[in-house]
Amino acid sequence: MRAWHSAALLLCCLFALPAVANSDEDGDGVPDFKDACPATPVGIAVSANGCAAEAASSDSGSHSAQAGSATALCMLTDQQTPYPADCSGAEVPKVYFEFASAYVSMESSALLARVAEQLKGQMVTIVLRGHTDIIGTSEANWHLSRERAENVAAVLSGDFGIERQRILLESFGASEPVASNETPIGRQQNRRVEILIHIE
């Protein structure tokens, strides 16, 4: 009987890990591990980081202008300055990946569409910085981080019209974690490609 209980407990733990890693406590569609505002009220439109998007004006004359600002991104440059320079609350858009994968998900494609829309008509260079968690050899992780950056570049270029020559790639492997590699959620946060604006 004890052996049966042990097996059941082990199975529960194994199946609970993905649920924790992909949980969404406030139900806004943004997983908790990348939700900057984990207690967003139900029904509020949110941006990619889980925080409330700027509400569009109900005035029909200003609706289109407000709608544009609601989806605008305040990005960071590789010099840690905001882009555009007059925006506030700058963030680094990030594309996250499953373990040992370089596949760009549909959710991430939606974020990349916003980035491309933000940069349409602006002749700026983008830096894509690829990262992995700590599992695997240094060489394998470097190549995986490079592949992740290349795949994000391919989506930006092939799907959303950002000229490939405007995209720089950098690979860091597991050398620059943003969270602990001791937990599944921390490792999930580390499997990422960061998008920054390059300053000459």
UniProtKB/TrEMBL annotation:
Q: Which CDD domains match?
A: OmpA_C-like
Chief place of localization? membrane
UniProt-listed Pfam families: OmpA
Which keywords belong to this entry?
Membrane, Signal
> How far does the signal peptide extend, from start to end residue?
1-21
Species of origin reads: Shewanella jiangmenensis
The keyword Membrane is annotated on this UniProt entry: yes
Q: Where in the cell is it found?
A: Cell outer membrane
Where does the OmpA-like domain start and stop, copy by copy? 84-200
SUPFAM superfamilies hit by this protein: OmpA-like (SSF103088), TSP type-3 repeat (SSF103647)
On the tree of life, the source organism's domain of life is Bacteria
Report what the protein is called: OmpA family protein
Which PANTHER family does the annotation name? EXPORTED PROTEIN (PTHR30329:SF20), STATOR ELEMENT OF FLAGELLAR MOTOR COMPLEX (PTHR30329)
